[in-house]
Design a protein that fits this description.
The complex is a heterodimer of chains A (about 160) and B (about 90). Chain A is an alpha/beta fold and about 160 residues long. Chain A is built from four helices and nine strands. In chain A, the strands form two sheets. A six-stranded mixed sheet of chain A has the order 3-2-5-6-7-8. In chain A, strands 1-9 form a two-stranded parallel ribbon. The longest helix of chain A has 14 residues, at about 15-30. Chain B is α+β, with helices and mostly antiparallel strands and about 90 residues long. Chain B has one domain (about 5-85): Ubiquitin-like (UB roll) (Roll). Helices cover about 15% and strands about 30% of the residues of chain B. Chain B has two helices and eight strands. Chain B has helices at about 30-40, 40-45, and strands spanning about 5, 20-25, 45-50, 50, 55-60, 65, 80-85, 90. Classes of the chains: A alpha/beta (about 160), B alpha+beta (about 90). The interface between A and B is medium-sized, with 35 and 19 residues. Strand 4 of chain A pairs antiparallel with strand 8 (about 90) of chain B. Chain B: This is Molybdopterin synthase sulfur carrier subunit. Chain B: It comes from Mangrovactinospora gilvigrisea.
Chain lengths: ~160, ~90
């Protein structure tokens, strides 16, 4: 428990292997369109727990947008479950996993980890993929380390 | 004489952290002007040049007001208005 708190204070994304892989799988599947979604977690904990892939209403290789009705449903649901969007992810399919000007202009969750995945080198296949995480606050981009934890195994087994 | 307005995290700096506030008015435009009188600065985050900002979604009783009359959408007592920032972006 104490280690979670320390991790949060150092502004790092700590994410399970399963959730990390689920994001990449979604990005590969939707390539060449951008994929997007959220990992919700209990409010105030900063722990990403519930994987919620979203439909890219723009169905575009250069833009993503949550459908407005889906967005309302998502936030209602998180509110009812006392959750918040811990991770907001999307993919870039022809450029690096770095926030674009558009990404920055839309970023509106100062507490969220904005995860970007790039499928430019792997497409729908198994090739190399970029997975990076950022804080975006008031137009400023700060990359943060990503720590992947193997929760399904015993800590010492890895 | 109240309309319930749900405030997203990013705008709670204008509402002293409140997740919901009350307001009044006959249209969304009037409601936002009323909110501005108690929460200075909030209107400019919602409205630009007489219409809703592109980055903001506003719902009247679960209906996106872009599919109603936008900022001119009539509102009244007992209505619930939810404000959510769009989740969008992309490499373009």
């Amino acid at each position: 428990m104490g280690s979670w708190r320390a991790v949060n204070l150092t502004r790092m994304l700590t994410i399970s292997r399963d959730l990390h892989d689920a994001i990449i799988e979604h990005a590969r599947r939707d390539h060449p369109d951008e994929a997007c979604g959220v990992i919700a977690g209990p409010a105030g904990t900063g722990r990403p727990e519930r994987f919620i892939p979203m439909l890219n209403a723009a169905r575009s290789p250069t833009f993503y947008e949550f459908d407005s009705a889906d967005l309302l449903r998502l936030y209602r649901e998180m509110d009812d479950r006392d959750e918040e969007p811990v991770v907001i992810y999307h993919s870039h399919t022809a450029t690096d996993a770095y926030p674009s000007r558009t990404d920055v202009s839309y970023a509106s969750e100062p507490d969220a980890h904005y995860v970007l995945v790039s499928t430019k080198d792997c497409g729908n296949g198994d090739g190399p993929v970029q997975f990076r995480s950022y804080r975006i606050v008031d137009g400023d981009i700060a990359e943060e380390p990503v720590r992947i934890v193997e929760v399904s195994k015993k800590p010492s087994a890895a | 004489m109240a309309i319930d307005v749900r405030i997203p995290t990013i705008l709670r700096t204008y509402t002293d952290g409140a997740k919901a506030v009350e307001g009044s008015g006959g249209t969304l435009d009037e409601l936002f002007t009323d909110l501005e009188s108690r929460h200075p600065g909030i209107r400019a985050r919602l409205v630009d040049g007489g219409s809703l900002r592109r980055f903001v979604n506003v719902y009247l009783n679960d209906e996106d007001v872009r599919f109603l009359d936008g900022i001119g959408t009539p509102v009244g007592d007992g209505d619930s208005v939810t404000i959510l920032p769009a989740v969008a972006g992309g490499s373009a």
